[in-house]
Recover the amino acids of this structure.
DNA sequence: TTCTAATATCTTGACATCAAGATAAATATA
DNA sequence: TATATTTATCTTGATGTCAAGATATTAGAA
């Protein structure tokens, strides 16, 4: 009887006309995601980052050499608005982790480039981050984890069909 | 090949030493939850609410008669800080959907009570909300949905063990 | 060429949230 | 009783986010 079961039970008493089967799935998604975010946030905080700044640095790192993308590309990859990305980049520039480099071919645009300091930091953080994630899925057996991943993949495809 | 697969592939190229199996699960949780929140938010917006205000009204409604809880109880149920709850209540009071009623037995505390207007509103919204949630899980067969729910339940228990 | 449209990014103002601390009342202890 | 502690809620200041609009540049059409 977890927290979501309790909510479902209350609705069954108060509104027996409602079928809350879907609510159980959706509710558990929300709560699990909150726990995951909290746990991962602690790893980021150990290195002076948060989920937002980690996201930008990790996107640049995994894009490969020369570890540089335009703000527009970062916006697409991280699904935030332009204002949010400007703010994130400003902070990372202030921290010396990325640099805004002018694009000679298009004066409207910049390239956001990992500094050496930024590269070294993300290189270390991502290792810890992966360890944290592995610990988080330890509640499931390897077989269950595989099964869950397959179901998530199908579920996500429903939203991100192209 | 969904978005999460692409990220995993980039990491495999750039950092083949990292095992990103757990990252796939965690990443899909994040993306799915974002899609769920967006979709549900639209239903709330149709009634002038957002996820935060819906949450408070729904908590009061499903608590049963007399549809009233203290701020402290609402904080526990919704997992937000006291400042956030004060703000949410202020807005709902302004909108005439709840009322702050003084507690005679303990002058420190109030009871937050659904008004008739608030009751009528949440009564209608929750019906639409359940329909939205049902549509959201239609990407899975009933059997898959059951399977997923069981796995989520076990996963969540890992975080909310008591 | 000159005007218009599209593109790339930044700025502004508003909002929800949190952490930490303030206020006030109830309860426990001396 | 008087004082200290706990409890319940609100206030304040900072942060991250978004939507809408501003600015500047490039590309296309007349």
């Amino acid at each position: 009887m977890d927290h979501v079961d309790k909510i479902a039970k209350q609705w069954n008493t108060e509104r027996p006309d409602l079928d809350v089967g879907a609510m159980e799935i959706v509710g558990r998604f929300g709560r699990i995601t909150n726990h995951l975010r909290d746990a991962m946030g602690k790893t980021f905080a150990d290195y002076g980052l948060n989920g937002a700044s980690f996201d930008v640095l990790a996107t640049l790192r995994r894009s490969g050499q020369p570890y540089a993308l335009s703000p527009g590309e970062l916006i697409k990859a991280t699904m935030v608005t332009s204002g949010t990305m400007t703010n994130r980049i400003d902070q990372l520039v202030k921290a010396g982790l990325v640099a805004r480099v002018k694009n000679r071919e298009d004066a409207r645009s910049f390239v956001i480039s990992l500094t050496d300091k930024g590269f070294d930091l993300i290189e270390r953080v991502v290792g810890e981050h992966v360890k944290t994630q592995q610990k988080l899925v330890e509640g499931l057996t390897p077989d269950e984890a595989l099964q869950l991943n397959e179901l998530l993949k199908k579920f996500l495809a429903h939203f991100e069909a192209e």
Summary: Chain B touches chain A through 59 residues (CB under 8 Å).
